[in-house]
Amino acid sequence: MTEIVPVSGPELITYADELAALLVETVDGGSSVGFLAPLDRDVAAAWWRERAGAVDAGHLQVWIARDAERPAGTIGLVRAPLPNARHRAEVAKLMVRPSARGQGLGRSLLAAAERSAAEAGVTLLVLDTESGSPAERLYRSAGWAECGSIPDYASDPAGFLKPTTLYYKAVGSAQRAPDRPASPSTSSQATPFG
């Protein structure tokens, strides 16, 4: 049985090597998640470890879908750092191990992020995904609305420029932005999962 659990910064460091394997498998399988193939496993593990501070600071939440062997999937939720955008968060790095696809893990991970966002007072979620990717079916079926596409937005793992499609979803109830400390962010905190 697969369990979806949030991870702390120290846990993210503990799982970094296993999550690196998932990231490498995802990139080498052709999914556009910000990296080019072939992705070095040590580079991928370092990338995960570098996110631990953002998790501990509350700028990033990460969940893993863990089966008996290893992480079968993951998703991140990046909180908007600016005072006028604290009602908003970005869903990022939804990945499911190829051998675990088709079992509803992507949908379960997405639901966990949506639920947590709403509980935290977030009312608007956004994401982008490679246009034409299988992930688009998941987002549409989960109630996400397409709001446009951008040509030549990012390179796929092979290095070819591809368009991205932007999606949004209202969650929770729109009132006023959640209270959060007004502290300046560094660029790594502003986009810790990009």
TrEMBL record:
The keyword Cell membrane does not apply. InterPro entries: Acyl_CoA_acyltransferase, Bact_Acetyltransf, GNAT_dom. Residues 22-167 form the N-acetyltransferase domain. Residues 182-194 have a biased composition (Low complexity). Residues 172-194 are annotated as: Disordered. GO terms for molecular function: acyltransferase activity, transferring groups other than amino-acyl groups. CDD domains: NAT_SF. PROSITE patterns: GNAT. Keywords: Acyltransferase, Transferase. PANTHER family: AMINOALKYLPHOSPHONATE N-ACETYLTRANSFERASE-RELATED, AMINOALKYLPHOSPHONATE N-ACETYLTRANSFERASE-RELATED-RELATED. This is GNAT family N-acetyltransferase.
